[in-house]
Each structure stands twice: as structure tokens, then as C-alpha cells.
Amino acid sequence: MQFTAPFNLAEYFLDSNLAAGRAGKVALYVGDEVRTYGRIAERSARLAAALRRAGVRPEERVLLVLPDGFEFAESFFGVLRAGAVFAMVNPLLKQEEYRYYLEYSKARVVIAHASTLPELGPAFEGARLAKTLLAVGASSEFTSYEQALAAEDPESDLARVEATGPDDLAGWLFTSGSTGKPKACVHRHRDFAYSTETYAKKVVGYCESDVTLSVPKLFFGYATGTNLMFPFRVGASAVLFEGRATADELFDQIAAHRPTLLTSVPTMINNMLRSERMEHVDLSSLRVTLSAGEALPSALLREWQERAGVEVLDGIGSAEMFHIYISNHPGDVRPGSLGRAVEGYEARIVDADGAPVPDGEPGRLAVRGGSTAICYWGDRDKTVATFAGEWCTSADIFRRDGDGYYYYEGRADDLLKCAGLWVSPAEIEDALLAHAAVAEVCVVGHEEGDGLVKPLAFVVPRAGHTPGPALADELKAHLKSRLAPHKYPRWFRWCEELPKNDRGKVARMQLKASLASGAGATT
């Protein structure tokens, strides 16, 4: 797949809609307000001019600290238009976390919502390199985003599209930081276009008539793709909302905007299924649901497809590869699996030395394709360990069956060795979720003084089920027909909810830490 210079993602995703006659089409819905492609293009051009006036040069970072809304889309494309590099972070962080991102990114300009300033403001004031903060919303301390845009001419030379090439730097995607500080995967313009042409168009089949809605927020690359870049490439419309994603919020947005494509995560699929509103909601507008971010238990997939009447395309992607490279396909969904390699990508399972292992055996997942990041910024050792030529090797453990379908086994440091055999927490979790009493579950390794690691299950019971020894015995009996004896959880810890990180994943390390502290009751 060839992308030739000049090539700029602002033209590829946004300006191409003007050339196709869609300037007046609704690109974004935010509550009762709409914004057309023409209006977003004009305001992103004004922002590009404002960034250049502030001294931003090509390939310099601009830090976006914004909730989902019109300004996020304008800023995203304005940064690209100016030839700069976007770096997106959660607008709900604390001061020390913002300080880390400012120092690490060396961003000279920050675009942030006023609601973030109590935490971000002090970090910005103490930053060594950051010079300008454009504040969206009321702020007496920093430059007004609206005033900065109003001062610029969208037709001026400052507002031009930078003549970047496909290999120029375009964006940073941060890792989740589950094993340390988040690191930036550095991507080129071509990387984002490649995933769009392969996964978005050939697997999901995005089209102009689609209306998209996402559970994850736009600062997360999974959603930046599915709910901004991909729909914009084909002239579709996206629904954005600022607040926290809840089952009720999702049901309200579906009723108001009738989306055709829902980007979700397993936790939210489960929450929607457990909601009383699930019995009455009209989901007939949906043609497909996407799932990624963590393993989707087969029981959840089947229940959603039966009750919602729409397929779930579960898949695996990463910040290192930008987006999804292994996925279930329409009409070809295999419950419990992540599907097959997306056309344009190649995947294999390898051992610790990088040698391929036979089908059915677990190992690390190595993948190559046209969207691989060039490095982890400022971390040569991690870059060398992960990126070997064209191949990117995951820290996660997978297996592939004889038909070419891939299955997630867990992170290498999450796998348990019980009775001398490797055990996947995901397999135990999937089996427990098939029981009517289990709403959520997370399995970790635990030992109580004898040095022998055994499975422990954190369980959120469904309404009407009482936690305690009787339920633990019922769950163990349920597992006897599904798992080998060494895989049974030896302990159950009951929870009202499981902690989640900002990507919607269960915070497994936090649960492990709670075991060390002795918090909570165990059966």
C-alpha cells in the first residue's frame, strides 16, 4: 500500500470530504448540537494558524488535554494541518501525572479544557519548555482558545496544510503504563492511513451512511480510530459526549442518535446486559459492535449477540501498531477468539528466542504490517526489545489454532503456574462468567505462606445472589465440568465492583495489591 508525498492526514481524513462535496454534511453530534465537515475544516485551519503563530514547528508535539467534543476534533486536525505531532492524554489526571507528560513530551503548546486547569495549571506553570496553553472554556489565567481562533484567517498562509510526507511524524500514542510510566509509541502519517485502509474499510466496512458511537474516549487510540479517524475518512458521522460512559448514558445516546456502529469494551457490554433498560431498549439501528482492550468472554459475546441482535467483532490492537490487526470478521465470529489476522498484517506465535511455536502452544504474539510505530520515545532498550525489523513482539501471551484463529491467554507476568502447569486467568474468568451468579470476575495468583501459587477469583455477584461459602461451593461445582482441577480458584473474594483504569480495563495490579494489604473478605 503506497502513500506518496505530499501526504498529510488532515487532508486524508478531513479535507477530502470537502472535495467530495460533503462540506454541509454533519460530521459530529454533541448533544443537541452539530458541526459540519466544512465548519470543522475552517476551525482546524484557524487553529493551525494559531499554532504556527505560537511558534510550533513541524514535528513538534502539541499536548491535547480535552474531553470528547467539537474542540477535540478541531484540535486534532489543526495539529496535523500545521505539520505538528499530536499527543493525547486523559483530561481527568492529577497534577503529578500532567507534570510527567509535560516534561516527557516537551510540548511547547498545550490545548486543554478549563475543567482540567486546577490540576494541569500548576504543572504547566512549572514546566520547563511549555510556553502556551490554549484554554477551552472560561479561564482568566491562560489564552482563550476561542479568541486565538477568532484572530486567525483560515485562508492565510499560516493556515495552510503543511506539505508533510507519509514518513513524517504525526502522532504519539501512549501505552497504558501497566508496568511503569506510560511511554509514547511514535507514529508516522502513513501508519494511521494504513490501519484505516485495512481494518476500518476491509473488516468493519465503514461507509458514508454510518453513525458511530464509542464507549472509550478519544484520547485512547482505539476510539481515536473508530470514532474520529475512520468515520471521517468515509464521510460518516460520529457521536461524542463529554461525561463518563455508563450503561444509561449509552442507552440515551443510542436513543437520541441511532448509531449504526458501537465501539465498546467487555466491561460495558456486561454493564449494558445487566441493566434493567436492556429489556426495553431499541438497538435495531446497530449493524455491528466492536470490542477490544481486554479479552471478551465467549459467554458475554453470545449473550450480547442474542439479546442485542448484532454481531460483536472482537479484536486485538495496540499502541505499538496503532489499531486492530487481528479481528473477528462479519459473518465469521468465533466466540472466545480474537479472530484472524487482518488483511495487510502477518502474525505468528513465538517463544522466548523469537522462534515460531506450533499451533495450539502458547507464546508471545509477533505481528508486522504497515502501521508499526518507529520507536518508544526516549526508551532505546524497550524499543530494541519490542521492535525487531518489521516485527513487533507483544508482552502478552496468545495461542493460534489450526484454522488461524488467535486466542488471548494473558500477560506473560499474569500467567499462573499451578501444579507445575501453566494456567491462563482468562480461561478461568471465561468459565466463571458463564454462571448466572457472576457479573464480573478477575482471577489472580495467590499463595498463603506455603510458596504454592493457586488461583484466587475476585467476583462481583449479580443482583439476587448472596456472596459467601455457599456461592463459592456453587461456583466450584460449576467449574468441575469445564476446567481441570488445578485450575479451580481456591479462594473467592467478593466485591461490589472491580477497579478499572482509564482505558476501561480491570486494574489487575490494584487487585493484587489489595491481597497484600489484606483488605476485603475472602471465602
Numbering strands along the chain, what is their spatial order in the largest sheet? 2-1-11-10-12-13-14-15-16
Low-confidence stretches: none
Could you name the CATH topology of the largest domain? Rossmann fold
Strand content: 15-25%
- In round numbers, the mean pLDDT is 93
Percent helix among the residues?
25-40%
Helices, by number, come to 15
Which CATH architecture of the largest domain is right?
Answer: 3-Layer(aba) Sandwich
How far apart are the termini?
A: 56 Å
* Count of individual domains: 3
Largest sheet: 9 strands, mixed
Structural class: alpha/beta
> How many strands appear in the DSSP assignment?
27
Q: Mind explaining what this structure looks like?
A:
This protein has 523 residues and is of the alpha/beta class. The protein folds into three domains: 9-187, ANL, N-terminal domain (Rossmann fold), CATH 3.40.50.12780; 195-370 and 387-411, Rossmann fold (3-Layer(aba) Sandwich); 416-517, ANL, C-terminal domain (GMP Synthetase, Chain A, domain 3), CATH 3.30.300. It contains 15 helices and 27 strands. The strands form five sheets. The chain has a nine-stranded mixed β-sheet with strand order 2-1-11-10-12-13-14-15-16, sandwiched between helices. It has an eight-stranded mixed β-sheet with strand order 7-6-5-3-4-8-9-19, sandwiched between helices. Strands 17, 18, 20, 21 and 22 form a five-stranded antiparallel β-sheet that branches. Strand 21 and strand 22 form a beta hairpin. The radius of gyration is 23 Å and the shape is globular. The N and C termini lie far apart (56 Å).
